[in-house]
């Protein structure tokens, strides 16, 4: 609780909007203010001098005043207040702290964070989300001492959380999956060939292996656009997305995260290979059967199954999942839904018949 002094020039708003001089005994009355935004100050002397403790603006959650003019001293009004970090409520009964309004001073932050938790606990709030930017990393140890836990970190910030109610924390965990894509690209200029690459950096047992172009999806990137981008970066070949042929789900892959890997069939719209990726040693069009007969490919049951599905797709004996843009009423957002459509349920006639390039 901080102590705040109003000098003789201060005024209060009365119950009917009247401006009152707080030091006039005839006009004095108790006042209560529910919220106030301004520079926080603390008591210095009874003559009304004020010392600032910070230039940041914080919300004053509760503020009560009392008149003190005993023993012949100059009458003053003292204010006790709880300062609260600038924040807004989320839709689940929690609080999201505004990272742009956090103080830089560690002592000020420590005081206001403790006060804020007290207020939020009284209000029955649940989860607290505290995003600390890189330039305010000195505040991290203070939050840890208050009981905050790490949630996740990005290049420019660390996200911390605090669960107020007794019992297990119900806040959602950090993202649990990484998403990768592989591009299966065929041409039939002379014979059926698949676009493959050799990586510069790989495990010793994979040296010399010709593999599909692969990579990770970027933040906010679609699966189908990520597959097209990865093929372009690793081979220089422009492609068009056709279908998701299959996907693999594995666990404890990198940093104990799970992994989703989508095999996408792409149609080439150019044929000139131009490597512009530091991770790729070489790239070429390789006869499909030669690719399949590589020992590491031939001996891998999962990958052999994927190749079987790709070959079945060429023969129209298997349909993958094509992308469709839809809007859900639940969130009014445009999303990508992957599914296949067969107009005649008695026959398997996949859309976009040709999987091969149309370049010359």
From TrEMBL:
UniProt similarity note: Belongs to the Nudix hydrolase family.
The protein's name in its UniProt record: Nudix hydrolase 6-like protein
Gene3D superfamilies on file: 3.40.630.30, Nucleoside Triphosphate Pyrophosphohydrolase
Residue stretches making up the Nudix hydrolase domain: 176-308
Keywords in alphabetical order: Hydrolase, Metal-binding
GO terms of molecular function: ADP-ribose diphosphatase activity; metal ion binding; NAD binding; NADH pyrophosphatase activity
CDD domains: NUDIX_ASFGF2_Nudt6
KW Metal-binding (keyword) present: yes
PANTHER family xref list: FI03680P, NUDIX HYDROLASE RELATED
UniProt cross-references to InterPro entries, sorted A to Z: NUDIX_hydrolase-like_dom_sf, Nudix_hydrolase6-like, NUDIX_hydrolase_CS, NUDIX_hydrolase_dom, Pre-Nudix
Hydrolase found in the keyword field: yes
Annotated organism of origin: Cynara cardunculus var. scolymus
